[in-house]
Every structure is written in C-alpha cells, then in structure tokens.
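Weekly sync, protein design subgroup
Attendees: M.S., D.O., the rotation student, P.L. (late)

Item 1: inverse folding check
M.S. brought a backbone from last month's batch and wanted to see whether the design step gives back something sensible before we order anything. D.O. pointed out we never logged the input encoding, so this time it goes straight into the notes. Structure tokens as presented (189 positions):
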C-alpha cells in the first residue's frame, strides 16, 4: 500500500472509531478521532492509563485552532510559527472535542503537526487526531517503531506501515501552557 492509500485507509478506520498506531512529527503515537469519546476511552484502556490524565490533540493547520479553543492568545501563533521543534500548547477553553479528552479544568493540549503522514491524515479525516505515546502508561516512550511493545501493538486496530524502519532522533514535543492573558509557562522542555 502506498502512502496516500494508507492515509485514506487510516482516515476511514478513524471515522469508524478505530484506534491506530502511527508515526507523528515526534515519536510513534496511539491515536483516534479526537471527537469520538468511545475511541478515547479505548486508548486509555489500551495504555492502562488513568482516565484523569490528559492527551495531546494534533491539528494540521494553526488556522483551525479557533474551532477547538474558545480564545487563542495572539502569542500562540507567534510561538507556533517561530518554534524550531515540535511544540504542544495547553490552551484554556477546549471545545468541539470529545468531553473525555478535555481536562477537568477545561484545558486542551494541541500541537500543529507538520509530518508526511500525520498532517494529511488529519486533513483527510476532517477532525483533530489524538496522539499519545506508543507505550503502556508508566513505561518510557519508544523512540523507534522496533521499541514498541508487542502487547501494545496487539491491542490497536491497525499499525501503520509507513516509517516503521525510519530511524528518528526525535523526542516528545515541548509542552507549554498559555493563560488567557498571554502569560505562558513551560511544562515539559
């Protein structure tokens, strides 16, 4: 299956509420359609993750932020455009996403992704995609596909073939939180 066909196939699976293991602009992730609560619950079960722990949402274009965040502080666009590495921003006022994805305090972590697989997947799906590291909760995130546990691989509905043998030197994204007044703090360097 070529890259374009695999992206279409994965978008079809995500629309059906399935969970996939896929490459992102950082590390491999476990993902689903960010608007489907049952799929999000399933990811938490697959990862053996506490239901209160939040997950990152990927978008393919910063222009779409305002659809999923009540107020995007102008500094967010500057940070996104000037970041030299993948940047996840925690915003107040998450909306139009599955309720079990938005934190109890109303925040949501979103990263604008620029990747050969993840960006077109999000575009094809027409919704944001959940991205959480491809590991059982509490274990170290894998830096390469061959480091992902067979236990996790066997729990998802589909494992993307693209980039399985590509060595990446990437790490998880930097995470910052932006307050409504524009102040921000680094949560994960």
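Designed sequence read out in the meeting:
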């Amino acid at each position: 299956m070529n890259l374009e066909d695999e992206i279409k196939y994965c978008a079809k699976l995500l629309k059906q509420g399935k969970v996939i293991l896929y490459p992102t602009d950082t590390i491999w992730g476990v993902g689903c359609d960010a608007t489907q609560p049952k799929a999000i619950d399933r990811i938490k079960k697959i990862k053996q993750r506490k239901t209160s722990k939040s997950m990152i949402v990927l978008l393919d274009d910063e222009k779409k932020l305002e659809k999923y965040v009540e107020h995007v502080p102008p500094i967010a666009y500057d940070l996104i455009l000037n970041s030299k590495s993948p940047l996840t921003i925690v915003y107040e006022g998450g909306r139009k996403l599955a309720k079990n994805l938005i934190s109890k305090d109303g925040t949501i972590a979103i990263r604008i992704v620029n990747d050969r697989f993840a960006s077109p997947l999000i575009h094809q799906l027409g919704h944001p995609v959940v991205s959480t590291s491809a590991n059982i909760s509490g274990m170290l995130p894998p830096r390469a596909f061959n480091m992902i546990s067979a236990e996790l691989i066997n729990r998802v509905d589909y494992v993307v073939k693209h980039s399985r043998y590509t060595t990446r030197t990437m790490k998880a994204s930097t995470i910052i939180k932006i307050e409504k007044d524009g102040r921000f703090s680094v949560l994960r360097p």
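Discussion: Helices lie at 3-15, 37-47, 65-68, 74-82, 118-125, 150-153. The first helix runs from residue 3 to 15.
Action: P.L. to compare against the previous round before Friday.
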